[in-house]
């Protein structure tokens, strides 16, 4: 059997895992590796340093390379490198969710034109097999809903906050110390990472391109220990949920925190674990869960893609036809204001008669039915204020936003502390 | 695009779901369907009855048919039909776990010789994508452990017993009324169905053929409401677990009831849902769950396989190379007596001083450490007897069986009511 030659761009955590895992496969050879610095100490035994180069373009232009594995992340220079590699008729394996979300359309068209494939199992859900199952084993389905936990850092933070009653800031600091959160945590905690992933996953599930610009996004930075405690009292946990629904041919795709019933599968996904719940016809509901990141789980998916390409290389006219991404149509987006949800609203109010009536009145005026209401004296040693937690019935986001605006103008409402959507 | 012609053998529940699902795909056409009786009323709108035949062999010999879909189950006549179809160079899609477990080796060799594929996503876990993920997305892994709930009927019965405190017999009767259990439930309740499935799943996960004859099997017919109650009190649920472990190059594959900690993912798989927990290097732990049976979930997997074959048909020299099953090696089995487990033992004993000492003494003599012990007066209004529940530390099955034999001979031990293994 002719050896398959792989060129790797990026030798960080994932790259190291890939190099180590590929050593188990005698028919695949790593022939070149692009790195940032030649002098960095690597956690890889017996690494042949003659393979290393700081010139990434020499990998994509290397005539020996059959498959380019891009593991540097981000748009630049990954975008240019992958385009060049495709033009050089190399197959691509990447874990780059940001690049796929922002420039997937152009890349997949270019790949189609050059008769190569782009594989990206590791870009969504780390080690969880999700891209191949959606494109292959579940291909008979019309998938109409995805609800997923796709970011390990935020799930770790929320799990710790819930289990320890700790504040967001304290847990974030701990996560940064342990290496579960980056020094600049914005990409994770503001939901960008989850949004990139759900863009790609919804695109293949719905078979229509979901534009990252149409994904509503809210992070977890406003979730307080108080929200966690109230949620628990009401039978919920708070999770950062990536949601994608296809209804009446419109795609409602978003990332935001949600209250999830403690009995729900997603409420029991803890720490850095990821999970994807898919609903489709004819299959019904499927849940896939596992490690969402890390050296070895991610390497599992990257090397799985390399093996898939290798298995058909030089043997097939049209390689891995089911893995191709020809989404000619764009999904018609639903704006967040037009979505219907249940809501958790935490208010700080004047502790005086009639305030509950005012809240009820404002909600009623805006077509919002209340499902439950909880009043508690403020623990801030201020007997002039109280806290009110409202859970609404399903209602229109635009109505809720109008009600919130009106509540904020009322003298009895001191503060609208949080508004969190509730999973049905 | 040239139409792909499918011939279906069997138009029961799954067959009907497949016919309905295939209607969404304009490039796939059902050209012939073998049925038992032409006169049976079918739950399919506008079924073209001219496609029906009672001669199954006419389907496998039909020159128009590209893919034979076998959905009759059992060994005869499915075995002969599939062999003939393969010899006629037709690709096979089947949901027949019994046939694969008993004659997979011969069938896969014959398929290889005739350059066709046998696909069987529906044979394990119904609608859950598991065969393709193990063979493709997880192909970089050395999988060393599978723990799974693979039989919906028994999981439904155990869930009901646990939730309602009902007896096995009562719940079985209810399951039969609801159509969740067959009139002769042996195949499900004695663990045969789960054993067929784990044989196939372990074979592809370990990349060595696991012989069905080497799978230790125990069903759920001895599980009592009392066992359920004691398990609950100790923090466990009882599940029928299909287990496969590869250690020191030996395959320990078995199906039997187990006590599973209530916090364990598998303890929370209820009703007819199936779940597969896989552990491998480098991925770590993955859990896949979903509907394990039924018309539409099973059709999802069957049609997924048909689409996979169709996507490469006439385009590739070697079709779906990763889906082929070339397991030249047989797995070396581990005998149940040589396995190490934790055990739950329920004893009916004489209610007299010293009996706990006797139990402890016999266990100690056979190298069995006790992890916990619970004594309770018998509720049988007989103050001469008591019940003792023992949970052991991890110990050798042969030692436990020897201890049980010795306990049975002791006058103080009235009855060894049950012995159930405990998941670590």
Index terms:
18 strands; homodimer; six-stranded parallel β-sheet; about 425 residues; alpha/beta; twelve-stranded mixed β-sheet; about 30% strand
Summary?
Two copies of one chain form a homodimer. Chain A has 424 residues and is an alpha/beta fold.
Description:
- Two copies of one chain form a homodimer.
- Chain A has about 425 residues and is α/β, with parallel strands linked by helices.
- The first copy, chain A, has 13 helices and 18 strands.
- The first copy, chain A, has helices at about 15-20, 55-60, 80-85, 95-115, 130-135, 150-165, 170-180, 185-190, 190-205, 225-235, 295-310, 355-365, 395-410, and strands spanning about 5-10, 30-35, 50-55, 65-70, 90-95, 120, 140-150, 215, 235-245, 250-260, 275-280, 285-290, 330-335, 340-350, 370-375, 385-390, 395, 415-420.
- In chain A, the strands form two sheets. In chain A, strands 7, 8, 9, 10, 11, 12, 13, 14, 15, 16, 17 and 18 form a twelve-stranded mixed beta sheet that branches.
- In chain A, helix 4 links the parallel strand 5 (about 90-95) and strand 6.
- The longest helix of chain A has 18 residues, at about 295-310.
- At the A-B interface, helix 1, helix 5, strand 12 and helix 11 of A face helix 1, helix 5, strand 12 and helix 11 of B.
């Amino acid at each position: 059997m002719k050896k398959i030659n792989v060129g790797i761009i990026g030798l960080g955590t994932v790259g190291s895992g890939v190099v180590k895992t590929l050593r188990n496969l005698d028919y695949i050879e790593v022939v070149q590796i692009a790195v940032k610095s030649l002098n960095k100490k690597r956690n890889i035994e017996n690494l042949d340093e003659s393979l290393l180069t700081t010139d990434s373009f020499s990998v994509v232009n290397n005539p020996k390379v059959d498959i380019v594995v891009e593991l540097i992340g981000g748009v630049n220079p990954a975008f240019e490198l992958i385009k060049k590699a495709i033009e050089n008729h190399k197959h691509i394996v990447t874990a780059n969710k940001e690049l796929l979300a922002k420039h997937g359309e152009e890349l997949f068209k270019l790949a189609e034109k050059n008769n190569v494939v782009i594989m990206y199992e590791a870009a969504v859900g780390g080690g969880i097999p999700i891209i191949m199952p959606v494109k292959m084993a579940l291909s008979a389905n019309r998938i109409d809903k995805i609800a997923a936990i796709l970011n390990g850092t935020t799930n770790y933070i929320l799990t710790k906050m819930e289990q320890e009653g700790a504040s967001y800031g304290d847990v974030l600091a701990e996560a940064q110390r342990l290496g579960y959160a980056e020094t600049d945590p914005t990409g994770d905690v503001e939901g960008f990472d989850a949004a990139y992933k759900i863009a790609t996953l919804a695109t293949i599930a719905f078979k229509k391109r979901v534009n990252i610009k149409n994904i509503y996004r809210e992070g977890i930075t406003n979730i307080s220990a108080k929200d966690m405690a109230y949620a628990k009292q009401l039978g919920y946990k708070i999770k950062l949920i990536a949601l994608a629904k296809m209804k009446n041919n419109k795609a409602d795709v978003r990332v935001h925190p949600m209250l999830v019933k403690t009995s729900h599968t997603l409420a029991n996904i803890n720490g850095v674990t990821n999970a994807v719940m898919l609903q489709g016809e004819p299959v019904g509901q499927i849940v896939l869960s596992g490690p969402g990141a890390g050296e070895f789980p991610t390497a599992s998916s990257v090397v799985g893609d390399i093996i898939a390409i290798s298995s058909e290389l030089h043997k097939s006219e049209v390689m891995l036809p089911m893995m191709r991404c020809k989404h000619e149509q764009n999904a018609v987006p639903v704006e967040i204001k037009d979505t219907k949800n249940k809501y958790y609203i935490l208010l700080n109010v004047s502790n005086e008669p009639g305030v509950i009536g005012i809240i009820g009145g404002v909600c009623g005026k805006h077509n919002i039915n209340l499902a439950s209401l909880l009043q508690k004296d403020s623990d801030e040693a201020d007997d002039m204020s109280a806290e009110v937690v409202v859970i609404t019935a399903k209602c229109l986001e635009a109505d809720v936003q109008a009600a919130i605006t009106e509540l904020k103008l009322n003298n009895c409402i001191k503060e609208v502390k949080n508004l969190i959507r509730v999973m049905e």
